[in-house]
Design a protein that fits this description.
Blueprint: E1 2-7, E2 10-15, H1 22-28, E3 47-50, E4 53-56, E5 69-71, H2 84-92, H3 101-114, H4 120-127, H5 138-150
Parallel strand pairs: 1-5
Antiparallel strand pairs: 1-2, 3-4, 3-5
Helix pairs in contact: 2-5, 3-4, 4-5
The structure holds FE2/S2 (inorganic) cluster (FES) (2 copies).
Residues 37-39, 41-46, 56, 58 line the site of one FE2/S2 (inorganic) cluster (FES).
């Protein structure tokens, strides 16, 4: 079957098998920030923004995303020009192995795009769907609150 997706501001058409997961398609498109974790919708590492909403792409078929606008971390900042959220994660030491970090940053972006002055509780709620195996959430929460102040 054929679908059309806009991935990181580029619209493309894809010939796919009906059971292809959105996570697989994004990684085939070199969006390696979309991490292959639990594949059951539990860890959040595969999250991307689909039409502005944080979605676990391992439990969404690519076919279900037909026509969608998808943003992954590849479209947020650049190595020489970090997004303020990325800089805040680095500056606060919120990144350890980094496996959860792309999804955390997208979750934070989704929050700050709808609520530019979040409380700590708002941030904790926004990050709750992304499981971090390395750390508690103290540093990531600090990073998001810091980035919010700079917006
Ligand atoms: S890999 Fe998708 S939620 Fe864990
Ligand atoms: S930094 Fe390692 S899983 Fe979160």
């Amino acid at each position: 079957m054929r679908i059309e997706l806009t991935i990181n501001h580029q619209t493309k058409s894809f010939e796919i098998r009906p059971n292809l997961l959105l996570m697989e398609l994004l990684r085939q498109q070199r969006c390696y920030s979309v991490k292959h974790g639990c594949e059951t919708g539990d860890c959040g590492a595969c999250a991307a923004l689909v039409n502005g909403k944080l979605v676990n792409t391992c439990i969404m078929l690519a076919a279900q995303a037909d026509g969608a606008d998808i943003i992954t971390l590849e479209a947020i900042g650049a190595p020489e020009r970090l997004d303020p959220l990325q800089a805040a994660f680095v500056d606060t030491g919120a990144i350890q192995c980094g496996y959860c970090t792309p999804a955390m940053i997208l979750a934070a972006k989704e929050l700050l795009d709808r609520n530019s002055h979040p409380t700590e509780a708002d941030v904790r709620d926004a990050l709750a769907g992304v499981l971090c195996r390395c750390t508690g959430y103290v540093k990531p929460v600090e990073a998001v609150l810091r980035a919010a102040q700079q917006r």
